[in-house]
Design brief:
The chain is mostly helical. 64% of the residues lie in helices and 0% in strands. It has 5 helices and no strands. The chain is elongated and about 50 Å long.
């Protein structure tokens, strides 16, 4: 099923909502400072994972765009550890923002993003990969976890 909103659109929307919810509806501060600064680790790690994963796809000369049929099944680099390292990186970045903000409401959009990726976007993309690469993708799928 094709989505009108691409994953990076969901990322930006839910990142904005995380910040908005924190300042408009700060229900409960669950991570106080200075512990909330640990969120920087998640944020930076997330962006690094996204950058490296995009670079690998570009070097392999295959599609980076969601829902497009890729030319190659990439299983090296970050793709050795996660079938979806870009979405993993985005989720880590959102988690980092949530931890930095520290309020319970800031975590809600991160959970929503994970759910959309896990139950809507990834299954649609995996159908394309199964159709395109058949047994090669099935073998890859059995050896590499969806997230980590």
């Amino acid at each position: 099923m094709k989505s009108n909103i691409k994953p990076d659109g969901y990322f930006l929307l839910l990142l904005s909502l995380s910040v908005l919810f924190h300042f408009v509806f700060p229900i409960l501060q669950i991570i106080p400072q200075p512990y909330s600064y640990f969120g920087i680790v998640f944020l930076v790690t997330g962006f690094i994972v996204v950058y490296i994963s995009n670079k690998i796809l570009t070097e392999q000369k295959t599609s980076i765009q969601p829902f497009e049929t890729p030319d190659k099944l990439v299983s090296n680099g970050t793709f050795r550890y996660s079938r979806n390292p870009i979405y993993l990186g985005m989720t880590l970045a959102l988690l980092g923002i949530s931890v930095l903000l520290g309020s319970l409401t800031a975590f809600l959009p991160t959970s929503i993003f994970w759910g959309i990726m896990n139950f809507k976007i990834i299954p649609s993309e995996e159908k394309i990969l199964e159709k395109t690469f058949g047994n090669s993708f099935t073998a890859y799928k059995s050896n590499v976890r969806r997230w980590i």
